[in-house]
């Protein structure tokens, strides 16, 4: 069965994470993603290990777990775009592509004639997406952008961590990942318009813009209320009780989202009096008396083990959950039932099954599995040159001999 983006070709000139996470999503949905990499070197994150995929003898294959996390459902083409012959190949692919994605520093591709204006003149139907740290305009446009730096500049670290300790970043490169998500949504919108008008658009995605945009409720709390949000650890700025609680043998997360749930919580922990306490009747009152109500709840939850509390609270219809380690996540029966992990054959270790994540997108009528495992460097070079550009074997061999591919 055809996938939703079958027939779309994505020319991916991006590297590291934000751009590749975007193209991975498009590849998951059926697009043909051609990942362009430097001959002999490839995407920098190929070397971001250990861990590396191991072969059947337990030897490292030099295919990093980091690279494998963001490059499924793509084909790898090695091209030296600094050479004239390499540029000819890229321009030929521009002619046959629907989307070009790049994350070079602002102005770098202009020197090679691969900037938006040049590409648009060559193929007006092509959608061109630039992903940079700070966008194509503004005083920071020329700066390099990295997820960690942007998490700090974009306010996220100021609201992450405990109040009395240093600011903290999120445990995954979330600024990159969310920028990739915004890029994918923007590309799909531009393709929809292109199909109606025949003309592509230039999309300008900035990591800092995206980071600021997805502050969501914290940004609105400041813009509407005027108060500067701070670090609350795992507590919620607008809801009480909504945080992590210690039990007799560990911790659980409790997410009481309304007054009805609060009343049921009081019954479940054996403190119905707390539901009638005038200080705690509504969420607004509990916010005003946060320390007092939390003191009472913490005292009760510390008396029993996590598993006992989770069973009782779930029976009472109160949103709660454990704090799983990464291994526990993948041992969870629900995660296993949803099939978020897929075993695939990988060219670097053909005699073992490599475990890779698959897209979480579920759509009736489609199965979005891992069609192509994360590719080895240049694995599909000959295939792409012959299939897409119709180069013959002699031409490809000559390009390889000259180091162009």
What is the top-level CATH class of the largest domain?
Alpha Beta
Approximately how much helix is present in the residues?
Answer: 25-40%
> Judging by the overall fold, what is the CATH architecture of the largest domain?
3-Layer(aba) Sandwich
Mean pLDDT: 96
CATH superfamily of the largest domain: Crotonobetainyl-coa:carnitine coa-transferase, domain 1
How many extended strands?
A: 13
Strand order of the largest sheet: 5-2-1-6-7-8
Largest sheet: 6 strands, parallel
Classify the fold: give the CATH topology of the largest domain.
Rossmann fold
Shape: elongated
In angstroms, what is the radius of gyration?
Answer: 25 Å
In N-to-C order, the SSE pattern is EHEEEHEHEHEHHEHHEEHHHHHEHHEEHH
* Terminal-residue CA separation: 33 Å
How many structural domains does the protein architecture include?
A: 2
User: Which class best fits the helix and strand makeup?
Assistant: alpha/beta
> Strand-residue fraction?
15-25%
Number of helical regions: 17
Give the low-pLDDT segments: none
Task: Tell me about this structure.
This protein is of the alpha/beta class and 405 residues long. The protein folds into 2 domains: 9-214 and 337-401, Rossmann fold (3-Layer(aba) Sandwich), CATH 3.40.50; 242-323, formyl-coa transferase, domain 3 (2-Layer Sandwich), CATH 3.30.1540. It is 37% helix and 16% strand. It contains 17 helices and 13 strands. It has helices at 18-28, 65-68, 84-95, 116-122, 147-153, 174-197, 207-213, 217-225, 259-268, 273-276, 283-288, 290-301, 306-315, 326-331, 333-338, 381-387, 393-401; strands spanning 9-13, 32-37, 52-54, 60-64, 75-78, 99-102, 127-132, 202-206, 242-246, 251-255, 320-322, 341-346, 349-357. The chain has a 6-stranded parallel β-sheet with strand order 5-2-1-6-7-8, with helices on both faces. Helix 6 (174-197) crosses helix 7. The longest helix has 24 residues, at 174-197. The protein is elongated and about 85 Å long. The mean pLDDT is 96.
């Amino acid at each position: 069965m055809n996938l939703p983006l079958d027939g779309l070709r994505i020319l991916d000139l991006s590297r590291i994470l934000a751009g590749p996470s975007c193209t991975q999503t498009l590849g998951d949905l059926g697009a043909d993603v051609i990942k362009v990499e430097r001959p002999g070197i490839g995407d920098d994150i190929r070397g971001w290990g250990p861990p590396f995929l191991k072969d059947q003898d337990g030897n490292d294959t030099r295919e990093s777990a980091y690279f494998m996390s963001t490059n499924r459902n793509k084909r790898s083409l090695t091209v030296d775009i600094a050479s004239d012959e390499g540029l000819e190949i890229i321009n030929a692919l521009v002619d046959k592509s629907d989307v070009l994605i790049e994350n070079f520093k602002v102005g770098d591709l202009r020197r090679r004639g691969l900037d938006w204006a040049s590409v648009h003149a060559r193929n007006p139907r092509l959608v061109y997406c630039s992903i940079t740290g700070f966008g194509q305009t503004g005083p920071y446009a020329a700066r390099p952008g990295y997820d960690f730096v942007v998490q700090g500049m974009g306010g996220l670290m100021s609201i992450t961590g405990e109040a009395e300790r240093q600011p903290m970043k999120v445990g995954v490169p979330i600024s990159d990942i969310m920028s990739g998500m915004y890029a994918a949504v923007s590309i799909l919108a531009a393709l929809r318009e292109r199909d109606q008008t025949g003309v592509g658009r230039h999309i300008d995605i900035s990591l800092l813009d995206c980071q600021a945009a997805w502050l969501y409720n914290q940004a609105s709390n400041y813009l509407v209320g005027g108060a500067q949000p701070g670090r609350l650890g795992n507590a919620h700025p607008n809801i009480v009780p909504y945080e992590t609680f210690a039990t007799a043998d560990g911790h659980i997360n409790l997410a009481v989202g309304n007054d009805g749930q609060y009343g049921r919580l009081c019954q479940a922990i054996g403190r119905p009096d707390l539901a009638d306490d005038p200080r705690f009747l509504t969420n607004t009152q509990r916010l005003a008396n946060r320390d007092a109500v939390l003191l009472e709840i913490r005292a009760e939850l510390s008396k029993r083990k996590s598993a006992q509390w989770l069973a009782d609270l779930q029976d009472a219809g109160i949103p709660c959950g454990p704090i799983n380690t990464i291994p526990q996540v993948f041992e969870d029966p629900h995660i296993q039932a949803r099939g978020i992990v897929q075993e695939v054959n990988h060219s670097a270790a053909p005699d073992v099954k490599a475990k890779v994540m698959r897209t979480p997108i579920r759509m009736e009528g489609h199965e979005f599995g891992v069609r192509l495992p994360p590719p080895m460097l240049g694995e599909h070079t000959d295939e792409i040159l012959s299939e897409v550009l119709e180069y013959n074997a002699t031409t490809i061999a000559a390009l390889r001999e000259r180091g162009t591919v």
